[in-house]
Amino acid sequence: xxxxxxxxxxxxxxxxxxxxxxxxxxxxxxxxxxxxxxxxxxxxxxxxxxxxxxxxxxxxxxxxxxxxxxxxxxxxxxxxxxxxxxxxxxxxxxxxxxxxxxxxxxxxxxxxxxxxxxxxxxxxxxxxxxxxxxxxxxxxxxxxxxxxxxxxxxxxxxxxxxxxxxxxxxxxxxxxxxxxxxxxxxxxxxxxxxxxxxxxxxxxxxxxxxxxxxxxxxxxxxxxxxxxxxxxxxxxxxxxxxxxxxxxxxxxxxxxxxxxxxxxxxxxxxxxx
Length: 273
What we know:
The chain has two domains: about 15-155, Jelly Rolls; about 165-265, Arc Repressor Mutant, subunit A. Helix content is about 40%, strand content about 20%. It has helices at about 15-20, 120-125, 130-135, 140-155, 165-175, 180-190, 190-205, 205-225, 230-240, 245-255, 260-265; strands at about 20-30, 35-45, 50-55, 60-65, 70-75, 85, 90-100, 120. The strands form two sheets. Strands 1-2-7-4-5-8 form a six-stranded antiparallel sheet. It has a two-stranded antiparallel ribbon with strand order 3-6. Helix 6 packs across helix 7 and helix 8 runs antiparallel to helix 9. The model is unreliable at about 1-5 and about 270-273 (pLDDT under 50).
């Protein structure tokens, strides 16, 4: 497989960003230079509710609070179990989501330090928070362009490309998380020990856990799809053994069964400004 084969990263879901906020908008882009997929998004918090649940997604978010007087930017690593976060009521947010991988980032810190953590941008870059550059812009497209031209160049790196890790993640996502370490190592032409070590170093979590999160996200995407897939469709397509396997994995990552998780996600849908 070509080392520059187009990345098949499936942009993961954070459903409550859409369902419990106002004016949600998103744009998906593929960066040819870095061979990466990105999701740009923007929303406004309701004035009466500022808490929401984030779920494991195997990605990194750069999230900006766009309040002109007090702008703020932070790096948000993937959680490993569902977690309630607090946002500023009435504030507008702009974010960028991209796949885990040390080769994506310019700053020198361990990926294990990012997983399950929120880190102020100014602490990572050792300079003033660049969020004010986005907060003063009125449009979503304008913020995307400003991020790409200025702030993005401070974070995202195309020079530390790791073909082993890229190809490993490609195969994990292509299989929807259903690939063993032996099969993965055989496809890459390296020992399982070497592949496991490289992945853990570059994404901050074990390949097995990352694969389970990829499968969880795949099944959740089907669960929320308007095509009304049956539970058996989801089990077969996502690679679960049976219904018990599906439910156990959902409880592992979200504390809830699939049905209960959907109820929790959608209960705030009717909130208004």
